[in-house]
Structures are given as C-alpha cells and as structure tokens.
## 1
Amino acid sequence: MAKIAVLGYGVVGSGTVEVFYKNKESLERKAGQELDIKYILDLRDFPDSPYQDKFVKDFDVILNDDEVTVVAEVIGGLKPAFDYVKSALKAGKSVVTSNKEMVAAKGAELLETAKEHKVNFFFEASVGGGIPIIKPLHACLSANEIDEIAGILNGTTNFILTKMIRDGMGFDEALKIAQELGYAERNPSADVDGHDACRKICILASLAFGKHVYPDSVHTEGITKITLEDVEYCDSYDAKIKLIGCAKRENEDKISIGVFPAIIKNESQLAGVNDVFNAILVRGDATGDVVFYGKGAGKLPTASAVVSDIISAVKHSDTSLSLRWRDSEQDFIRGFGEFRCAHYIRLRANSVDVTKAVVKALFGHVEYLSAKKQPENELAFVTGVISEKEADDACAKAADGAEILGRIRVLDY
Ligand code: HSE
C-alpha cells in the first residue's frame, strides 16, 4: 500500500483528491498496489469536507511519517512550497508538483536533490495543464534532437484573446470571466504580463536543451497592449494574435527564447487553438513537427496530470534519468536583439504619402493591411523578416514623422 500526501487544497489540490478517489480502483490496478491519500495539508479549515480525518496544518507530520512515500505539492509559489519539496526529497519521498514557478526557478537543484536521494521529482502538471508534454518530451521523443518548441502556454490569455477576437469583448471583462472559471493565477499579472508562459517555456527549454533556463534570462511581454484595432487588421491578413512562448536551437550552441504576443497565419495549427486550450509544437530532427493540444488550465485537467505523476512515482521508485537538466550560466541564450521575424507595425501618420515613402526606405517592401473603420491617417503593415534590433532602429526613425501605435511580431509556424 502506497500512502500519499497532498500539500494544498485549492483548485488543483481539491481536483487532485477528487480525481484520485473517483478513479481509485483503476489507479490501483495501474499502480499494481493499493493506494491512499493519508494527509491533506492546508492552513484553512474545511468543516464540510468528506476528508476531515486527513487534514493537517503542520508539514512536519507528513515529513516525519515514513509511511508517506509520495508527496503532491500543489500549493504554488516559492514559499513555503520549495522548502517543503526539498525536505520531502531529502527525506526519501518522491515529489510531484504542478508548481511551474518553483520548477522554473529551482528545477535543476530539485532534480539533483531527487537524484542524490534516489527518488523522483515529477512535474507534468507544471506545463500545459492536462496535456502530456513533459514525459513525451524526455521519453517518447528521446530519439530526437529538439530543434524548436513553440506554444500557446497560458490558458487565461488565450481565453481573453479568443473573447476579444470572436466576440469583440473588452480585455477586463474577458479576464473577469477567466478568473471566475478558475483559470487565472492568484495575481492575474502572472498571466496577462506573460510570466506564467515564460516559466513554462523555461521548463520546456531546460528539458529540451539540457541546461537550466532562468525566467530572468527570457525576453517576456504580455498581452495588455493588444487592442481590438490590431485584431481587426489581423483579420484582413487571415491571421490571429496569440501569446506565444518559443525556444529555438541556433548555431554556435546557443538558443533563442522569448514570450510575446505574435501574429500567426490562420493555416497554422496554433491559430485555431481557442479558449482555455493550449497547444505546444515540438520540432524534432527525426519526427518533424509534433503538436500537443488540450486544456491548459482548470481544476480537473491539471489534477489529471498530478494524479498521473503520482502513479508514475509509485511505480518507479528510483530517479528517472531522462528527466534531467543541469544548472548553467545563461551564456548559451542569444541576446533578444538578434531574434529574427517579420513585424506588424501600426502607426498614425502626419502625412500618409510621406510616411509610406519613409516606410519603404526603412523596411523595404511591406504588405499593407486594412480594417473596417480604419482612420484615414492610420497605416498598418507587415515587414519582411528582420532582426529585433533592426526593427527597433527602423521604428525609432519612423517615429520622427509618425506615432507608432502598435508593433507585434509575426511568426511562421
Ligand atoms: N493560470 C494558468 C493558465 C494556469 O491560465 O494557463 C495553468 O498553468
């Protein structure tokens, strides 16, 4: 019989307990042994819960109980989660977690601690909610060198962008609905400013390229500057705006990585990913493109990944050697100024003819877009592929006779 402790009884924690007891019989069959949740750690009281006898407020009760072999950490954040996880691993307990902030900040260290103590540290739920991506990346795709990963990694922002694009709904109203549905982080800035997607692409890039990528090393932008006007121009370009996290192997053993809103042509598989769904495209040197798609946030999809990791941890007591990366200086990350792609630029011109001539001189051939209620003095266009630095310099020069109203990168997946 394997005994499990669940740390945190919020959205994901209560979902984990729910999925566990709903499917207990089949989980035991898959684990090859009886299973039970012995403890649920939470500082709050849940007087109406059917699991009254399992609640504890003191983590040491769990830590000092040798019967507990697997700990599921679903509290989120670094404090106190990191201390709990580190001491559980040191005490010889495997840990599974949905905590992307902790894995992105401390993954290399925790994987090392797990190895030292011959236990497992699994985090399938930290990226893509219910979508299997961590295990496919290090196990099923292990024959490949991964050349590139690009994904819609945040359900809340994808939900907001979908509401803006499909229903013309304003940003604040769409965010409020995402919060009510339990998709958003406690502080929604983590979603809308891109930090959550950044943590997730850091985890994927660390695993794919073998060196820890820290969130501070990643150029990160959110969706707060996207307007309904941009959405309309993109419509005429047969494209959608999505918050994308991407990481790519470059030559000289470097990678480029970033999180930002991007315009994606409708024919791309990523453009059709709506609402709370996430999709992650992995480009392997043998497989070519493989796309993983499913619900990227929410109670039960995320709980599904946590419970699956619990079963894996029960079945495999020794450290998984393929789920690894090492700590690293960040010098393998190429400066974002060298990132190359096309750019959508929207500007208000003092004189349309003069500005068009300036645009031609600065950017060469561009494709002009249109919108239904386009003001006479407004221009929107898509450039050819240029570096970030070239785009910055050209925009600074264009701003002399025009006001830049918007700039969004255009990606080709
Ligand atoms: N707030 C996150 C999202 C939850 O919206 O994707 C899942 O990580």
Note: The CA atoms of residues 130 and 301 lie 4 Å apart.
## 2
Amino acid sequence: MRLQTLIQFTSMKIIDGKAIAEKIKNEIKAEVAAIIDRDERAPHLAAILVGNDPASETYVASKDRNCKALGITSSLYKLDAKTTEEELLKVIHFINNDPDIDGLIVQQPLPSHINPDKVIEAISPAKDVDGFHPLNVGKMAIGLPTFLPATPMGIVEMIRREGIETEGKHVVVLGRSNIVGTPIATMLSRKGNPGNATVTLCHSKTANLKELCLQADVLIAAIGKPGFVTADMVKPGAVVIDVGIHRISDNSEKGYHIAGDVDFAEVSKIASAITPVPGGVGLMTIAALIMNTMKAFKKEL
Ligand code: NAP
C-alpha cells in the first residue's frame, strides 16, 4: 500500500478550477462579441438582493463583474431588508415580463419574513438560471434538458473538461442539500457523460460514513464542515472534489484564510486528483451561472 500511495502521490493532479472557469468565460466572451457584432442586444442577467447580507453582496458583486467583463448586461435590483413578500413578488413579475431580461436570480438567504419557496416558484421557469424552480428540478430528476443548479453544474462541467471517468464508478457525495448534494447525486447517476455512476448520497444520519467514503472512486464533499474529510477516509487514487468554503481566522495580514471541507494537505498526498479551496469548485459556480444565462438568451430550453 505504501508504494501504491507513493505512486499516486507522484502523479497527483490539482484540478485548476480557475483555469477551467477562465476558458469557459473566454468562450462565452467570444460568443457575446459575435452576438453584438450582429447588432443583436446582449444577453441580460438580473439579480434581486434583499437586505445587506455580506456574503450575498460579495457573490452578487462578483456575478456583476464577471458578466460585464464578458459583455453580458447585468442589473441589480437591491431591495431594503424590510421589503414585503408581496413587494418582492411584484418585482419578480416585472422582470418575468421584461423581454429584454433573459435570466433572473433571487439571492438567498432572504429575510425571515419572506417565504423562499414562494419566491422561487414565482420566477419564470424560462428565466430560472439558478435551476431552483420545482419545474426545472423535476426536469433535472427525469433527465430532460433544463437549467441545472450552478454549483453542481460547475462540478459536472469540471469533471467533463478534466476527462474524469464516472461511468461505472462509485461516487460518494457527502451532503444532501437542495443546492449541491442532492442535484450532483442526481446528475452523476443519470445516463450520460459525465454520469452513469453508482452514487451513494450521505448525510448526518448516515451510518458507517468512513467505510462508505473509503469505497469512493470519486468523493464529493459538500457538508459545510472545515477539514472534515481526512486522509484515512479516502481510498488511494480517488478523485476528491471539495465544495466547502469556510473563512478561517488566522494571524495572517488578512486575518483569515479560505478552506474547504477536505484536509487538503493530507488528502492531496493520496488522491489522484483534487480540487483546491480556493481555486476549485467556487470559481466554476459563476461560470455555470453564465452558461445558463446564455442558454436562457438563446431560448435553448
Ligand atoms: P448545507 O445546506 O448546510 O448541507 C450540509 C449537508 O451536510 C446536509 O445534508 C447535512 O446532513 C450534511 N452533514 C452535516 N454534517 C454532517 C456529518 N457530520 N456527516 C455527514 N453529513 C453531514 O450545506 P450546502 O449549502 O450544501 O453547502 C455545503 C458547503 O459547500 C458549505 O461549506 C458551503 O459554503 C459550500 N458551498 C460552496 C459553493 C460553491 O460555489 N463552491 C456553493 C454552495 C455551497 P443533514 O441533511 O442530515 O442535515
């Protein structure tokens, strides 16, 4: 086992999410430039932000920056934290009916007096580039073309572009959230490439978690616990995809660093490929959201 581990270590690959996301964005930039050259209007993504959640503000600002850099129109509807559910629904209906807006995201979390399910259901499924509307979730579940949620879609795109084999492999997903764990498990178990995997979906009530992880050819960690996946939970040669994002306080100049759900320093010694945090899955999420915006613009679905 020691020799095998050494061989795996020497051939270990760090999956460069930044480079893959940049490539996707450059492809989209060229496509948008061609659209504008034909004197057509640019694709347009709108975001609604209710209140002042700092993480949400950062994400929306990054989305805005990325869209503009690619020639995509980006508009932000920034609403006061006291906005009522009815007022928010009116803004959504307005955007649903605006033919010059292709995609709409309503940033979560919403203030507690607003029912997120009602809000998601109010978004036109044809503009639901986050892929959270029940109609689009249902289409995903039965394998019909639809908007896939950005983070799992970004992971699948990363797997595709890296040529990671999933057919016949055992994929173990840690975490069953509606935005990451459940959809990635669905996507990889469907027919297709990437896909055709045998998927085990784990959560906080899973017994024998470590034994299941050790069987994984591809291990996807999305549980929201820093450094949870340790080297003794990983089969030598496995592909490890780390979705977690945590801001950890430290004594550096910045006062913090970003870490994932995986103990990167130790797990990278035995994995065949691994995504870093930062620089891995996180950057693919916005790339996937922009891919969905292009689909909405082209009315492909
Ligand atoms: P979440 O909604 O909090 O879900 C966490 C999941 O992990 C739940 O299904 C939970 O099980 C499970 N879990 C928690 N503790 C566990 C344990 N000890 N053993 C096994 N399962 C356990 O999290 P999320 O929204 O999916 O996010 C997960 C992580 O990904 C977070 O760090 C988040 O910041 C990050 N994230 C990153 C991106 C990106 O763009 N890279 C996007 C979204 C999220 P139960 O269902 O039983 O409670």
Note: The chain is about 40% helix and 15% strand.
